[in-house]
Structure formats: structure tokens, C-alpha cells
Design goal:
The complex is a heterodimer of chains A (about 290) and B (about 280). Chain A is mostly helical. Chain A has 12 helices and 2 strands, in the order ααββαααααααααα. A two-stranded antiparallel ribbon of chain A has the order 1-2. Chain A starts with a helix and ends in a 7-residue tail after the last helix. Chain B has a single domain, classed as Rossmann fold. Helix content of chain B is about 45%, strand content about 25%. Chain B is built from 11 helices and 10 strands. In chain B, the strands form 2 sheets. In chain B, strands 6-7-8-3-9-10 form a 6-stranded mixed β-sheet, sandwiched between helices. Chain B has a 4-stranded antiparallel β-sheet with strand order 2-1-4-5, covered by helices on one side. In chain B, α4 crosses α5, α5 packs across α7 and α7 runs parallel beside α8. The chains are: A mainly alpha (about 290), B alpha/beta (about 280). Chains A and B meet through α7 and α8 of A and α3, α4 and α7 of B.
Chain lengths: ~290, ~280
């Protein structure tokens, strides 16, 4: 009797584990099956041509995702430029400098920041950051890639801080002691020993932050202005792939080329995120080599 | 009653004031022309637990001083007092006076970073940085601000030669230090400490984590180094202390029971407890 329960429990748990894989495969299948007809009919070319995104045009609709890819890259890289230095410095502070009570105070704050809904951050960008950016740079509107980059950066900060702190904490204390015993100051020890030793973990933190930033939709939808024109600078309005899907999916004709094109955009996002997360995972496995 | 009490107090402070300068004077006059490390009435606490009791010792310049004693007797704590590595442990407290080159290293204005450049340390487990062999040795000079490649090369070469490692690694200075064997890693750590040009080297059981052959190489190295450096070594191994040291201190339960020339301490100890320990009656 007991062995039957054991077996039943085992099957249940295995099934739950497999379900995760099933969901992932299912998502990939839906993306592929809905984007394939479009890819078959149009080929890869039109999606990456130096053209416009105008799928609802009367005469010759165009499906180029290239400007949205630029938009996504600008917002994502901008977010990383903003969030990685701050995140790593904050992680070094939490792991190396903060006293226990400071750590007790700051870690829940980081968690609260992680829990702020992106729509709230987007609202903040709309009513606070946008007017500020418009005033500072003397623009008509502050809804642009810069605004989106800052807010997406803020959204990616908690994950970067948490993972980078784990990486820094995992550095064996022997390295720190060696540096201090050689007459290193605390600052030199952090900068020249601890952070380099935690480098792979910190890179992984940045990449997982990037993974979150690429797919972020609500914030960019609210604060980047959503113009599909090719952006020339961070102060131009951009539309990201994710926002592009969200904007069009509501009123697209089912099974039209436009519909399939949106799934091509989704597939692209999925693949980029998948690769970034995979690379991050490989880096995390490469923990700093501990002493025997 | 109250009247007499306050009078007494005043008298005491007067007495202290008159005595203190003389005390300092006599200690300065006495012996500091020959001793590198001088510890007087050292008491050391981890929180409320006292780890060292009234340790007083003078270590001569150059040569090897070994500290022996059973586990937990305070010998490693004593070693880390000398380069203030105990500062890293929260809640530690120290009473008494520790002087190196005649300077009280626990004076409020002490520059700990400079102290640690003068007093190098080699740890129990080899702990090279996860960097190349070259970068390990160059670490100390670089944080000191040295950028000149030619000078760095010189220091790396002389330090590795000083630690008897040069011939083994001269063709692969850019390989990771962690690829070396345990004994080589420990000599690398010695070389890394030498590169900062200290006058004192502290070694905390440097051979306990490596094999006998590598141990012998390090013991030979310590004998070579001691003509230029004052070496203070904590060891679990009494034979090792007897082989390599000029002076030996025996610690027991936080007390320095006996300090003297190694040959004398191991043959004619003055204290019964020392004799019991070295003849293996406990420990």
C-alpha cells in the first residue's frame, strides 16, 4: 500500500516537473505555428528589410521589424548602461560594506522595488520623468528611448542587485584576507579582488537583468512614445518589439500576414531572451573556483 | 569618611601620574635596540571570551620564531594580533601593548594598511587569487601604485626567486595560479608576500595543507629567508618547530607558558607543562 502511494507521489511530482518543459514547448509551438505561415508566404527578407512597419497599408503593406529591433536594443542597452553600474555597486555595498542592520534595512527595500508593478513604474515615467526629460533636453515630449531605458533599468535593478550580491558573497573569504594582508585597503580589495573573482556571476546578473529588460512591455508602451520611425538618438521616440505586439494585437485581422508578422516579432523576442538566459546560466555554473 | 575617600583618590592619580612616564622610559631604555616585535601584557578577547592571557614576549630581528601548542591555545590568534588581521572579526578587544620596530601598532593613529605591508602573512591554506601567476605576485606592488612594467617584471622575478619558485614557473607566468600544485601555490603565496618587501613574515601553519615533500621545500625556504626576514611561524608540528626555528614559544590555553631558544626549550624546558607537552603527555 505504502509503495503505491510512494509511486503515485513520484508520478505526480515528475509530472509537475515535466509540466514546466511542456509549457515552454507549448509556447514555442504556438509561436512557430502562428509565425510560420507568414514566414512561408513572405520569407525572412521583408521582416528584416530596411523598410517600415506598415502592415495595414492599403496598397503594399510592409512588415519590417527593423525599427522595432532598434527600439528594443536601445531601450535594453540603455537600461543596462544605467542599471549595471548602480546594481553592482549596490550589491558590493550590501555584501562587503553594509553593517548587519543596514543590510537588514536595504534587502527588503530591494525586494519591494522588485514587487512594484511595471504599470506603476510606467505611470511614474509618464507624469514625473517625461516632463523632467522634456525640460532638461528642451524637447516637445519626454516620451522617448531615454525615459524607457531609465525605467526599465529601475525595473531590472532588483534582479541585478540580488544576483550580483550572491556572486560577491560567494567569493571565498581567503581572497579578501590575502588582499588585506598584502596591505590592500578595503576599497582596493573590493575593486581588485572581490569583484574580479565574482565577475562571471556579475555578468550573469547583468544578462538576466537584460533578459527581463528585453521583454518588458508595459513600461515601454507607456513611456517611449511608440513611434515606428527609425530612431536617431536616445531622445527619439521608439517602439520596441514587445510594445509593437501589444499595440497591434488587439485589432489585427486573424490569420492575416499582419497577424503572423506579430508572431514573428514574438518568436524573435523569445529566441533573444532564451539565448541571453542560456548564456547567463552557463556563466552562473562557472562559480569562482573555491580553494581546496 | 567621604572626605578621606576623595583624598585617597587624588593621591592615587598623583601616584599614577608620577610613575607612568618613568615606566615608559625604562621600557624604552631596556631592550628595543635588538627586538623587532615586542609584546607586553597582551590580553585578547573575542567578545566576552578571553583568548590570550597576559602574553609578554620579545622577538629578535631575523631568524625564525616558532609558536607551538595544542589546537585552540591561542597561537594563531597571537599571530594575527601582529598584523591586526583580528580587526576583521567583529567584537574583538585587546589590552596591553604590541610594538613593531618600537612603534605601538594599536596606537589610535596607526596606519593598518602600512603595518600589513611591513608584516606579511602566509595562510594555512594556499590562497592565490584566481589570476595569473604574474598578477598574483604583482598584486601588492600594483595596489601600492606601481605601474612601470620593467620594475614589475623585476619584482615578480626576484620574489619568485626568493620563494624558490622561479625555475618552475618562469615559462608560464601568464597561466592561472590555481593550476599550480598545492606546494607551489603556497610558495607562490610566500613570493606574493615577499613582493611587498615586508620585514616580518607571519606564517600560520603554512605546511599543514600540503604533502611532505612540498613541506620540506618550504622548510628549506624558511631557513633561507630567515637571514633577511624575521619569520614567526605557527605550527602544529613540534618536529617542524625543532627543525626550523631559533626560538620557540609554547602556548597553552591562551598563556605563553615558555619562550626560549629552541634547542633549550626542547631539551631542558623550564616549565613542567612544556615538558609534558613536548614529551607527548598531552596535546
Amino acid at each position: 500500500m505504502a509503495s503505491i502511494t510512494e509511486k503515485a507521489m513520484r508520478v505526480l511530482f515528475v509530472f509537475c516537473g515535466l509540466a514546466i518543459i511542456l509549457f515552454l514547448v507549448g509556447i514555442l509551438y504556438v509561436l512557430l505555428s502562428n509565425s510560420m505561415p507568414g514566414l512561408m508566404e513572405l520569407g525572412f527578407g521583408p521582416f528584416f528589410a530596411a523598410d517600415r512597419w506598415n502592415p495595414a497599408a492599403y496598397g503594399e503593406p510592409t512588415y519590417s521589424l527593423i525599427n522595432m529591433i532598434y527600439g528594443t536594443l536601445m531601450v535594453t542597452l540603455g537600461a543596462l548602461i544605467f542599471a549595471v553600474p548602480i546594481g553592482v555597486a549596490a550589491a558590493a555595498y550590501l555584501a562587503e560594506i553594509a553593517s548587519p542592520w543596514e543590510r537588514e534595512l536595504f534587502k527588503p527595500i530591494v525586494e519591494v522595488l522588485a514587487g512594484v508593478p511595471s504599470v506603476v513604474l510606467g505611470f511614474f515615467g509618464l507624469v514625473v520623468l517625461a516632463p523632467l526629460i522634456a525640460r532638461i533636453f528642451n524637447l516637445n515630449s519626454g516620451l522617448n528611448a531615454f525615459n524607457g531605458a531609465i525605467l526599465v533599468g529601475i525595473m531590472a535593478l532588483p534582479i541585478i542587485i540580488t544576483l550580483a550580491e550572491d556572486a560577491i558573497t560567494a567569493v571565498p573569504k581567503e581572497y579578501r584576507h590575502a588582499s588585506l594582508a598584502l596591505g590592500g585597503t578595503r576599497w582596493q580589495t573590493i575593486w581588485k579582488t572581490t569583484i574580479p573573482a565574482a565577475f562571471s556571476g556579475i555578468t550573469a546578473a547583468a544578462m538576466l537583468g537584460m533578459g527581463r529588460a528585453i521583454g518588458e512591455t508595459m513600461i515601454v508602451l507607456m513611456v517611449t512614445g511608440n513611434m515606428v520611425a527609425r530612431p536617431d538618438s536616445f531622445l527619439d521616440s521608439v517602439r520596441t518589439l514587445s510594445a509593437g505586439i501589444a499595440i497591434d494585437i488587439g485589432d489585427v485581422v486573424f490569420n492575416s500576414n499582419h497577424f503572423h508578422a506579430l508572431f514573428v516579432a514574438g518568436l524573435l523576442l523569445f529566441l533573444i531572451t532564451f539565448i541571453v538566459n542560456l548564456l547567463a546560466d552557463i556563466l552562473i555554473q562557472r562559480k569562482p573556483e573555491a580553494n581546496k | 569618611m567621604i572626605q578621606t575617600n576623595t583624598n585617597l583618590k587624588i593621591d592615587q592619580t598623583l601616584v599614577q601620574k608620577t610613575i607612568n612616564p618613568e615606566l615608559i622610559k625604562t621600557t624604552q631604555d631596556n631592550e628595543c635596540d635588538y627586538c623587532e616585535v615586542k609584546v607586553e601584557n597582551l590580553n585578547f578577547f573575542y567578545g566576552s571570551i578571553q583568548a590570550l592571557f597576559n602574553v609578554t614576549v620579545k622577538v629578535r630581528e631575523k631568524g625564525v620564531a616558532a609558536l607551538i601548542g595544542p589546537s585552540g591555545c591561542g597561537k594563531s590568534t597571537f599571530l594575527r594580533v601582529l598584523n591586526r588581521m583580528n580587526d576583521l572579526i567583529p567584537g574583538t578587544r585587546l589590552e596591553g601593548k604590541v610594538s613593531i620596530h618600537g612603534e605601538n601598532i594599536y596606537a589610535p593613529n596607526t596606519d593598518v594598511v602600512n603595518l600589513r605591508k611591513k608584516v606579511g602573512m602566509v595562510f594555512q591554506h594556499p590562497n592565490p587569487f584566481p589570476k595569473s601567476i604574474f598578477d598574483n605576485i604583482a598584486y601588492g606592488p600594483r595596489i601600492d601604485g606601481l605601474k612601470d612594467k620593467v620594475k614589475l617584471n623585476e619584482i615578480v622575478e626576484s620574489s619568485l626567486k626568493g620563494a624558490a619558485l622561479w625555475d618552475e614557473v618562469k615559462d608560464r607566468l601568464n597561466e592561472p595560479a590555481l593550476a599550480l600544485s598545492g606546494g607551489q601555490q603556497q610558495r607562490l603565496c610566500i613570493a606574493r608576500a615577499l613582493a611587498v618587501k615586508p620585514s616580518i613574515l607571519l606564517m600560520d601553519e603554512p605546511t599543514s595543507a600540503i604533502d611532505p615533500l612540498a613541506t620540506q621545500r618550504i622548510e628549506d625556504l624558511i631557513r633561507e629567508l630567515c637571514s633577511n626576514y624575521t619569520i614567526i611561524i605557527v605550527t602544529h608540528n613540534m618536529q617542524q618547530a625543532a627543525r626550523i626555528s631559533d626560538h620557540t614559544g609554547f602556548f597553552l590555553q591562551g598563556e605563553m607558558v615558555e619562550w626560549g631558544e629552541t634547542s633549550k626549550l626542547f631539551t631542558k624546558p623550564e616549565e613542567q607543562r612544556t615538558e609534558d607537552y613536548i614529551t607527548g603527555r598531552f596535546g
